[in-house]
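[Discussion] Sanity-checking designs against the backbone

I'm trying to build intuition for which residues belong where. Below is a structure token string of 337 positions. I'd appreciate it if someone posts a full sequence so I can compare it with mine line by line.
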């Protein structure tokens, strides 16, 4: 195989960027796209000069397509993912793998049963800052990790405005850090306790912020803080940090100030994103491009993708345990699950 021929399912916020990147990646050809909103799909297709399929069923019937990128809403992953696996198409699936544990497991099993690659888009696995911290842990430089802390905050004008009452702070935002925590720690979580608050987003019926603590099998602990109710005027799109303390050292990642400050009369002070999907002259760079390139290379060169399907499933399990703890106002014992 000299190139990977790809179709994109879903042309919303992430799907548009996937289509843009795949249309420009080397060793890759974007065959076409599809979306339930045919007008939106047509507009995207016109900009990047590609074909529009009527629906994902038609797209999956095409012999011209080797792989698909699935960018539909989080709760709708099961249908297209299972259909793609049965059609023998390799799959890049935006995170989380699913919003229900059983569906996550079904998707992973179907991909394995049909011998197709399943890559779940936890793009922070391609962030060089987190990768460097992971390397430091694996090298033994920090010793045994005793505590890990993460925070991921964003303005109310982002997630809540985009997803409204359908937004899920844990499954859509915190799952990034849940995956990172499990990746860094490489230990089994045994219990979790979480609390939430909903004041600014009360009218939408979604949380403002959540704090969760995780106990691991060796006694180490993790703390996750995440919030999407920062003021609209907050100068950065993502205020994210991670800190790990080990028996021999300390490591930290700070993603808020990325080295560039822009201040203008119209926008005030902003810290633009230089990491995830910065766009220059119509081309998208950053972690997202690296992730999509990694997917193509995993197919062409039979390389491992940054995250395994099982790891993606485990992240969803822990996310659902956090939600259960909030809903039932209790500590959730994972050892009995």
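Best answer:
Here's mine. Compare freely.
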């Amino acid at each position: 195989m000299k190139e990977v021929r790809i179709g994109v399912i879903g042309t919303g916020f992430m799907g548009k960027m996937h289509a843009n990147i795949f249309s420009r990646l080397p060793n890759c050809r974007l065959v076409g796209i599809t979306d339930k909103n045919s007008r939106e799909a047509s507009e995207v297709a016109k900009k990047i000069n590609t074909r529009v399929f009527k629906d994902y069923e038609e797209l999956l019937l095409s012999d011209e397509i080797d792989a698909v990128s699935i960018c539909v809403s989080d709760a709708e992953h099961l249908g297209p993912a299972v259909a793609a696996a049965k059609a023998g198409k390799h799959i890049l699936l935006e995170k989380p793998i699913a919003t229900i544990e059983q569906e996550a497991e079904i998707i992973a099993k179907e991909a394995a049963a049909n011998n197709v690659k399943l890559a779940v888009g936890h793009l922070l696995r391609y962030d060089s800052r987190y990768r460097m911290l992971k390397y430091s842990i694996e090298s033994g430089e920090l010793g045994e990790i005793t505590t890990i802390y993460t925070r991921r905050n964003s303005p109310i004008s982002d997630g809540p405005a985009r997803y409204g009452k359908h937004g899920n702070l844990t499954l859509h935002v915190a799952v990034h850090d849940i995956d990172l925590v499990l990746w860094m720690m490489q230990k089994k979580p045994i219990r979790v306790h979480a609390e939430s608050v909903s004041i600014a987003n009360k009218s939408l019926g979604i949380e403002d912020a959540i704090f969760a603590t995780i106990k691991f099998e060796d006694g180490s602990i993790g703390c996750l803080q995440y919030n999407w109710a920062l003021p609209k005027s907050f100068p950065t799109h993502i205020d994210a940090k991670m800190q790990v303390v080990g028996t021999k050292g300390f490591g930290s990642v700070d993603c808020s100030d990325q080295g560039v400050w822009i201040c203008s009369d119209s926008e005030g002070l902003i810290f633009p994103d230089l990491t995830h999907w910065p766009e220059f002259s119509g081309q998208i760079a950053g972690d997202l491009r690296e992730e999509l390139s990694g997917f193509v290379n995993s197919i062409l060169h039979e390389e491992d993708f940054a995250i395994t399907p099982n790891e993606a499933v485990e992240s969803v399990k822990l996310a659902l345990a956090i939600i259960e703890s909030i809903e039932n106002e209790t500590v959730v014992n994972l050892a009995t699950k």
